[in-house]
Structure formats: C-alpha cells, structure tokens
Task: inverse folding
C-alpha cells in the first residue's frame, strides 16, 4: 500500500494504534483500537476509531476534524487493519461507523484501496441484513474483513 | 548514578509500511466510546450473524 498515509504507532499487542492527523486545523490525535467480542461462540474483533482528546482522556465521537486529509486517514486506518490481521490472522474484523455518514466513509476508504486490500483480505459488506462480497458503488451498513489463507 | 531502563519505542517494518511500537500508549479499553461501540457491534452481530464464507473458511482452518 504505497499511498500517502500517517506514521502509525502501535502497542506490541497489535490491538492499539494511534497517529496524528495534520492539516489546517492543526494536529489531531486519532486512536484505533481492536477489541475482542464473542457471538455464538465465535470471536471477532470490533474496530473502534475516533479523535482522542488529550484533555479529557476520552474519545470525542462528535468531533468533525475537517483537516482536509480524509483519504490519508482512511489509508492509515486500512494499514492498521492489515497490521492487526497480521498479528491475528484467524480473526475477523467488524467495522461499522458510529453514524451512517461515517460508515459511508469507511466504504469509500475500502473502495479506494480495494486493489491492495483484496490481495490479503476477504472483505464483505452487509446490506439489508445480508452479508455479500464487497463491491464498489454499493452501499453497506457494516463490513467484515478477514485474512485470506496463506497471506 | 542510577540508570533506569527506559521503554524506548522501536520501529517495526512490515512490508512497505513501518509502524512504531510503543507500549507506553494509554490503555483505551475502558473508553466509553469504545465500550459503547463494542456492545453495539455485539447486538448487530447477534442479529445478523457472520458471513457464510467466513464460517466456511473458519471451519476449514479448524479442520486442518
């Protein structure tokens, strides 16, 4: 994945990532975390992503950065998915935005980077409650990605 | 003079991207936003389940 992206910092557990968005609104710290959940005896990891507020020490999920670096951020999040699944190759990642607009953003990010992503991951989108292989120009309400065997 | 071992971030190169490893990052596991998102994902997954292809891949891996 050779597109422009931010330098990512990660814990050695491959579960916690952060980076700093840089743009007209300054430097904004972004946090990505992967946490395990279990449904019907099957474990998956939920991707959480948001702006980190250093004053409150909490994610600010209402913040809209407008730092004019959307594509760079989406590539950076995609890099974290690749890194996470490298550490946990058997685990699927569930991705859903906190609002429909943010889910659409993830969809744009996946679409824009699909040629690189699909070399190592299988990506599905959920539409009307049904999981289908991800296709560009189709609207989904959630996504699931997992490592292809032997990648 | 005391010499205290510092946890110095190191660089890890993976394919064509480099990630800095830093275990001093804050633990955000209990952040209300992430907790809420995690619980919402469980509800969603309970309702709609997993992609059929993932279940098949998983079954194949478990059988190996």
Result:
């Amino acid at each position: 994945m050779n597109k422009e992206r931010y330098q990512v910092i990660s814990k050695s557990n491959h579960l916690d990532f952060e980076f700093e968005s840089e743009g007209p609104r300054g430097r904004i710290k972004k946090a990505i975390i992967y946490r395990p959940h279990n449904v019907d005896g099957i474990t998956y990891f939920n991707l959480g992503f948001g702006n980190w507020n250093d004053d409150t020490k909490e994610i600010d999920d209402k913040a809209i950065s407008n730092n004019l670096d959307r594509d760079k951020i989406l590539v950076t999040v995609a890099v974290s998915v690749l890194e996470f699944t490298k550490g946990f190759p058997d685990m699927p990642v569930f991705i859903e935005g906190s609002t429909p607009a943010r889910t659409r953003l993830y969809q744009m990010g996946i679409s824009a980077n699909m040629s690189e992503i699909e070399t190592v991951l299988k990506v599905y989108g959920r539409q009307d409650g049904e999981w289908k292989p991800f296709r560009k120009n189709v609207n989904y309400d959630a996504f699931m990605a997992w490592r292809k065997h032997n990648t | 003079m005391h010499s205290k071992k510092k946890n110095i971030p190191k660089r890890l190169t993976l394919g064509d991207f480099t990630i800095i490893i830093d275990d001093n990052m804050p633990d955000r596991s209990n952040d209300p936003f992430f907790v809420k998102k995690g619980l919402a994902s469980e509800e969603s997954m309970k309702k709609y389940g997993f992609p059929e292809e993932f279940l098949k891949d998983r079954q194949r891996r478990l059988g190996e």
